[in-house]
Amino acid sequence: MATVSSPPVSLSIERPALYVVATPIGNLADLSHRAQALLASADLLLVEDTRVTQKLLLHYAITNQLVSLHEHNETRNANAILSRIVEENLGVALLSDAGTPLVADPGYRVVKAARDCGVPVYTLPGPCAAIAALSIAGIPSDRFVFEGFLPSRSTARRTQLAEFIHETRTVIFYEAPHRILSTMEDLCDVMGGERDVSVGRELTKLHETQYQGHLRDVTTEIRNDPNAVRGEIVIVLGGTNLQQTDKEERDALKMVAALRKHLSAREAIKVAVEITGIKRNRLYRLLHSRESDATGVE
């Protein structure tokens, strides 16, 4: 692997202090000059996976001491790490495997412990997969929600997705490649197939792919692409139009009420789903959560 020499950046490290350093999400050239200098000058680096960080350091010909800090040991080790920073008067850098630490990655407990101890915490900003995906999605970005990873099981995932049916802000999810198709299918079932979505795969890497359009169409595209189940994935889901959603719901509820005069509740719902296109589960939730004299359905 080719190495890149660190540029001559003047960097004065405060001690004791904790530096939260963003690292590339794919393309190693995205590491800032300031971050390169900090990683070379810090007393030690707190890293998620030493093997991953070693590749980055090797690329920039940086040598430094690495201390493993991940989701399984952070709670246990946070206070001990802070004690060492204070007692040994260290300037320490905190990294995740890729992107900005703490954003769906470990680090929160160490940062909080530093704050609680009065140790200064500084940021070296840079790449973040959620923001990178949002910036190229072509979906409103002035107001958004970051939800991180969804539950791995479909039932729990659908329950969580249901919380965003009426969300008007853009919602950003991370997803594992082996679950992307089932997650997209759940999104279609819960949200309906007309919501705008952008799915970014392997952003900034050689095989970067973007799938954009309506949920239904993007789901079909992903289903037909064998490469869709490879790499890191970010889903950017457009918010709902409340006026349109309210009208759809009112129309569906009115239709069920009219059909109930001639059909059973189950049959009325089935027909309303076929005619309006509203999802069955969504219509059931509406019928059971709203008190409406017009429905006549308990």
Quick recap of the structure?
The chain is of the alpha/beta class and 298 residues long.
Write the layout of secondary structure elements.
Blueprint (H helix, E strand, L loop, with lengths): L16 E5 L11 H9 L2 E4 L2 H10 L6 E3 L5 H14 L3 E4 L13 H10 L3 E4 L4 H7 L8 E6 L4 H9 L7 E6 L4 H12 L4 E6 L7 E6 H9 L9 E5 L4 H18 L5 H12 L3 H10 L9
Parallel strand pairs: 1-4, 1-5, 2-3, 2-4, 6-7
Antiparallel strand pairs: 7-10, 8-9, 8-10
Helix pairs in contact: 3-4, 6-7, 7-8, 9-10
What does this structure look like?
The chain has helices spanning 33-41, 50-59, 74-87, 108-117, 129-135, 154-162, 180-191, 215-223, 242-259, 265-276, 280-289; strands spanning 17-21, 44-47, 66-68, 91-94, 121-124, 144-149, 170-175, 196-201, 209-214, 233-237. The chain is of the alpha/beta class and 298 residues long. The chain folds into three domains: 17-127, Cobalt-precorrin-4 Transmethylase, domain 1 (3-Layer(aba) Sandwich); 130-237, Methyltransferase, Cobalt-precorrin-4 Transmethylase, Domain 2, CATH 3.30.950.10; 242-289. The strands form two sheets. It has a five-stranded parallel β-sheet with strand order 3-2-4-1-5. Strands 6-7-10-8-9 form a five-stranded mixed β-sheet, sandwiched between helices. β8 and β9 form a beta hairpin. α9 (242-259) crosses α10.
